[in-house]
């Protein structure tokens, strides 16, 4: 489903973390957000997810204004660093969370959780709590949880940063698979890695000092001299 940000401004005290962001990610489109540390990329994702509240502007999903809708009711798959996992839930229950919230039948929940844990190589850790895992393992569970619900909107903040080469490849494959299985999925993807952005994104948006300074199709960047 389409994600629209209209003049979205987010402030933390006196810090303007995001200033008047206008951005539309079309259904079926993947947009990569590039930019230096502190430029507002994560804040943009958190605003869409509903973890931070804009001081100005509106956010719409499939044309519906969700600016005042709580995060859990937005139906979005999220992998952002500070909101990684629910600490009081075991790994399997973290992955099952969104499926249960959507009232999926028990058998389907079990099957899907097993499938997702298999994908990220975490079956052995199903009964563990997040604090018993390494950072990279937590990241893998967060990806499993986000993809479990086959979301219509997927927000990813450096999802592959803590993973080794094989897992990165598997994960990129899984994202391509999601795009095939949920053709309407809108993906917004924060990365520092240009090649990753080019490999995955239809368009690349560049942020600097809380503002969007450039947005262009990846193909144009490929063609650049
Ligand atoms: P990026 O993801 O591009 O690294 P962020 O969106 O995390 O940037 O941060 C943008 C700006 O907002 C930075 O100046 C950062 O220090 C500030 N910021 C982010 N989150 C908070 C917060 N919870 N409280 C105060 N300032 C914050
Ligand atoms: P608070 O500042 O009130 O302690 P947080 O900043 O931790 O809350 O989270 C803001 C909202 O986002 C809360 O309603 C919380 O339940 C929700 N939330 C936090 N992390 C996630 C997540 N990973 N998935 C879904 N909802 C989350």
TrEMBL record:
According to its UniProt record, the EC number is: 7.6.2.9
- The name of this protein is ABC-type quaternary amine transporter
| Keyword tags | ATP-binding, Nucleotide-binding, Transport
Any one Gene Ontology MF annotation carried by this entry is:
ATP binding
UniProt domain ABC transporter: residue ranges: 3-225
Question: Which GO cellular component terms, listed alphabetically, does the Swiss-Prot or TrEMBL entry include?
Answer: ATP-binding cassette (ABC) transporter complex
Segment of the intact protein contained: 1 to 225 of 344
């Amino acid at each position: 489903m389409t994600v629209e940000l209209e003049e979205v401004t987010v402030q933390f005290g006196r810090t303007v973390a995001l200033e008047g962001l206008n951005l539309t990610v079309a259904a079926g489109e993947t947009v990569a957000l590039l930019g230096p540390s502190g430029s507002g990329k994560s804040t943009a994702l958190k605003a869409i997810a509903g973890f931070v509240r804009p001081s100005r502007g509106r956010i719409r999903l499939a044309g519906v204004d969700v600016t005042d809708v709580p995060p859990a009711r937005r139906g979005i798959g999220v992998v952002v660093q500070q909101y990684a996992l629910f600490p009081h839930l075991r790994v399997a229950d973290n992955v099952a969370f969104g499926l249960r919230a959507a009232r999926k039948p028990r058998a389907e929940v079990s099957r899907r959780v097993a499938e997702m844990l298999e994908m990220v190589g975490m079956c052995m850790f199903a009964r563990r709590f997040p604090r018993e895992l390494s950072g990279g393992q937590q990241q893998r569970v967060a990806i499993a949880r986000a993809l479990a619900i086959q979301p219509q909107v997927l927000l990813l903040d450096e999802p592959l940063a803590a993973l080794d080469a094989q897992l990165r490849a598997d994960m990129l494959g899984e994202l391509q698979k999601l795009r095939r299985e949920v053709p309407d999925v809108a993906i917004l993807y924060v990365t520092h890695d240009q090649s990753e952005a080019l490999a995955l994104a239809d368009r690349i948006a560049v942020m600097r000092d809380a503002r969007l300074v450039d947005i262009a199709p990846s193909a144009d960047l490929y063609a650049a001299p």
